[in-house]
Amino acid sequence: MSYLSATNMTGGYGKADILHDCTLTVDKGQIAVIVGPNGAGKSTAMKAVFGMLGLRAGQVTLDGTDISALSPQDRVKKGMGFVPQVNNVFPTMTVEENLEMGAFIRNDNYRVTMEQVFDLFPILKDKRRQNAGELSGGQRQQVAVGRALMTQPKLLMLDEPTAGVSPIVMDELFDRIIEVARTGISILMVEQNARQALEIADKGYVLVQGANKYTDTGQALLADPDVRRTFLGG
Amino acid sequence: MSNTRQAAETSRLRAPLFFAIMTALIVLEGVTSGWNSALGILNMGLISAIMALGVNMQWGYAGLFNAGAMGFVALGGLAPVLISMPPTQGAFKAGGFGLIVAFIIAAIAVLAAVWLYKRLHGLARGLAVAAVLIVGFFAYRFFLDPAVSAIEAINPSAAGNLGGLGLPTLISWPVGAILAAGAAWLVGKTALGLRSDYLAIATLGIAEILVAVLKNEQWLDRGVLNVNGIPRPWPVPYEINLQNSQAFVAQMQAWGIDPTLGSTITVKLAFLVLFVVVILVLLWLTEMSLRSPWGRMMRAIRDNEISAAAMGKNITRRHLQIFVLGSAVIGLAGAMMISLDGQMTPSSYNPLRYTFLILVMVIVGGSGSNWGAILGGVLIWYVWVKAGDWGPDIMGLLASPFPDGPFKAHMIASAAHMRMLVMGVILLGVLRFSPRGLLPEK
Amino acid sequence: MDIINALVAVTNYVIIPATAYGAQLALGALGVTLIYSILRFSNFAHGDTMAFGTGVTILITWGFQAMGISFGPLPTALLALPFGIVITSALMLGTDRVVYRYYRRVRAAPVVMVMVSVGVMFVMNALTRFLIGVDQINFDDGARFIINARQWREMTGLTEPLTLRSTQVITVVTAVIVVAALFWFLGRTRTGKSMRAFSDNEDLALLSGIDPNKVVAVTWIITGALATIAGTLYGLDKSFKAFTYFQLLLPIFASAIVGGIGNPVGAIAGGFVISFSEVGLTYAWKKVVTYLIPNWEPDGLVQLLSTDYKYAVSFTILILVLIFKPTGLFKGKIV
């Protein structure tokens, strides 16, 4: 069984379902990417995995334990880390304080983890005393990822981490995400930049209208002519 | 299915039921404490109901929190003084010219400052605007101060103010509405369109200032010296005239009523008829407007500002409209109240009584419901008056087990404040358990 | 010499009173701004909370005085203050439990919360009146002056007197201590930082495992303490009257908004902006003018505004800020 396995998820916000029998799995240390057209339910699927959405059917297990009934906060304690797409930092707090807040639920010494985050994102170390709200878009995303890493998650979920950043910054962010995955953390990520994201993906999901349309390795999806034509613009 | 019909049935019976209860309470008051007291409560209750109608337009239709109803009530109350009081002999001659010049200077200075603000930039703008305002202020005071002293010197024990125009009192009612509307336009123009509670804070401020003006500008309304003997509106008679009228006395004696008592009740009934007419007109207007496309749009904006804005509605403009209209109704009530009292006492304006109590009326009656505002107005006014009466009794009962001494004395002395507690508890209770009020909006 | 006399007059009638008043407003505005940042509404009950806290402190002061306990040259009220804070904060927590918590759970709109705070205002108003009545109360004991007019004249030989009342110094010293403690708490402690995080981004704070109930409870405790301290200092400096405290709501809100609502530094700056404007504009400058311009005696008092219009000053500054810089002098929260 995969490290994260969210199977047959069906549900939505109101009466109408957004997700229809959607299944997402990620193995240990792997990068899984969810792509698809606008309104396909990508972010919704991610939120369902994180427990921010009531599911009518389906099950979410993490490392073999059923976490379907847990609140997002409890899922964080179980080893999930979540980086929302927007509003994902504390703008009037310093970078260091942001990371500290990330470690709020930890009672042990988090200094080592903070050093690891600084190693991963050296720029943050230089700007540790600066308010997160004053940083550039790319740096702010690094703070957001760093904050989520402070709980030492086993699974890191990123909702469009490269939205609104320049291509150069995007490449750098993807490099960092690969580095994170190499340390054994599983990654589940929603991405608009489908082509670049699939290139680094061990596993890719193409969602259409809340259902799995294609599921394969990232490379295979990139090579699939149907996927290329319909979703990657040729 | 049957359930929904039942619900519709109860909601249809709800309004008559509550109005019947209200009537019963007033009748009970008439039987137990006399009809003068009952009609007194009812008349003031109806005036409060009109204030509540105005606040309901703002809070109920549009979700605007006006924390300064007191100011508009007070400003409306200025109208009877300025319109229906006789002019003070020689006052205008003594200071009228100075006043007019002063106000023209003030208007020119403000307009010039606005114009400069729009034309210039940077440091020059700040300096020029400040210079114009400072020079304008001193010029204004240069003309105003002597004019004010001259007016206040005329017969200070009885007048010392400009006096009024000597016109019929009824005319002052719409004028009160216009005065309030003008002030509301100024406040709304600046504070609307910002965070919702900024309007509350701005109106809280303007109310304090308006009352401060009424308290201090003696040349205008004699300030804390009060204006007495404001003429009654047509066709309300004076008690003394009735008592001197042979026909009236004969009629009362024929009915077996003491003529003095009869005269006071006749006066109150005449006011009552006048107020009921005003309320019916307002109700008709407000109900019509609520059902019109304009009213539907208002509610659409209140219920979902974002989607209304997306549909191209200019929300700030609509809010300004409703805020001005609601304040006009509050000002009308303020003018009516002064006509009823026959005197203007600026120091009696208290925000708890004239701002926050009115809000309680609106919320208890049912936000957005005009009938609810009227019910809430009369009912809450009744409770407010009666809580003042019952407070000492209840406190006396509570204090009876304690031995005589300072503690017991303190308890009984504090009973007068019971009504504050009652109002707070009612407001919190309604907000929590019945947020749509007694007569919910349909 | 006349220039020095003018300076002394300005210090005596403007700078010293405005500094004390500004410190009181700042403490009040800090309470308003904290509630605004964490609970996200303008608390109309704050003035009456100050009145309640002061009322309790006065009662305890009287108790101490009856028992013969005093604080030497300092006012006994300072000894009573901690007890007043505990009782007021407990009342705040109780109010939150009985009233506000429900509206947080249903995620009520801010304007509904404001309305709820009006209900609380009525109840607090009644409690204060039950407790201590509506009359004006002076409860300042201890040494009245640090410098009085006669000492000053003997010391300096100037004609212009200068007095420094002990309550003014106590106000400023206490305010500095309280503000320093508050900033230390918000900036250095885990709980304080979690409050700032909650204020910055509630959803993210919840995701990070910050307990909202604890944050809210601590906020009410601090607000109760700030309100009691601000109210007691104001009462010591001037006098206590329940209705005056309700009226303080306007300058306090104005201070918070002028500084940038939700921003504690702004609340303090705003308090002094309002107090100096209010005192400066309502002061009769005749004396100063006479010192500065020899051989000229102005006719009037050279008073820009009568003191009855002091609320107009707060209001005008408030309106100017709302028009030209809605986020306040120091960037406040969303407009």
UniProtKB/TrEMBL annotation, chain A:
Segments crossing the lipid bilayer: none
Record-linked SUPFAM superfamilies: P-loop containing nucleoside triphosphate hydrolases
Keywords associated with the record: Amino-acid transport, ATP-binding, Nucleotide-binding, Transport
Entries under InterPro entries matching the protein: AAA+_ATPase, ABC_transporter-like_ATP-bd, BCAA_Transport_ATP-bd_LivF, P-loop_NTPase
GO molecular function term, any single one: ATP hydrolysis activity
PANTHER family: HIGH-AFFINITY BRANCHED-CHAIN AMINO ACID TRANSPORT ATP-BINDING PROTEIN LIVF
UniProt-recorded name of the protein: Branched-chain amino acid ABC transporter ATPase
Originating species: Thioclava dalianensis
Automatic annotation (TrEMBL), chain B:
Matches recorded under Pfam families: BPD_transp_2
Ranges that cross the membrane: 12-31, 37-55, 62-83, 95-116, 123-143, 163-186, 198-214, 269-290, 320-340, 352-385
Main location (coarse class): membrane
Annotated source species: Thioclava dalianensis
PANTHER family, per database record: HIGH-AFFINITY BRANCHED-CHAIN AMINO ACID TRANSPORT PROTEIN BRAE, HIGH-AFFINITY BRANCHED-CHAIN AMINO ACID TRANSPORT SYSTEM PERMEASE
Compartments it resides in: Cell membrane
GO CC field: plasma membrane
UniProt-listed InterPro entries: ABC_transp_permease (IPR001851), LivM-like (IPR043428)
Key words of the record: Cell membrane, Membrane, Transmembrane, Transmembrane helix
Domain of life of the native organism: Bacteria
Membrane topology field: Multi-pass membrane protein
MF annotations from Gene Ontology: branched-chain amino acid transmembrane transporter activity
Protein name, per record: Branched-chain amino acid ABC transporter permease
UniProtKB/TrEMBL annotation, chain C:
Subcellular location: Cell membrane
Family: Belongs to the binding-protein-dependent transport system permease family. LivHM subfamily.
InterPro entries assigned to the protein according to its UniProt record, in alphabetical order: ABC_transp_permease, BCAA_transport_permease
GO process terms (BP): D-alanine transmembrane transport; L-alanine transport; L-isoleucine import across plasma membrane
Annotated PANTHER family: BRANCHED-CHAIN AMINO ACID TRANSPORT SYSTEM PERMEASE PROTEIN LIVH (PTHR11795), HIGH-AFFINITY BRANCHED-CHAIN AMINO ACID TRANSPORT SYSTEM PERMEASE PROTEIN LIVH (PTHR11795:SF371)
Organism: Thioclava dalianensis
Record-linked CDD domains: TM_PBP1_LivH_like (cd06582)
Membrane topology type: Multi-pass membrane protein
Superkingdom classification of source: Bacteria
The protein's name in its UniProt record: Branched-chain amino acid ABC transporter permease
Transmembrane parts of this sequence: 20-39, 51-71, 77-99, 111-132, 168-186, 215-236, 311-330
Entry GO terms, CC: plasma membrane
This protein's UniProt keywords: Amino-acid transport, Cell inner membrane, Cell membrane, Membrane, Transmembrane, Transmembrane helix, Transport
GO molecular function: L-isoleucine transmembrane transporter activity; L-leucine transmembrane transporter activity; L-phenylalanine transmembrane transporter activity; L-valine transmembrane transporter activity
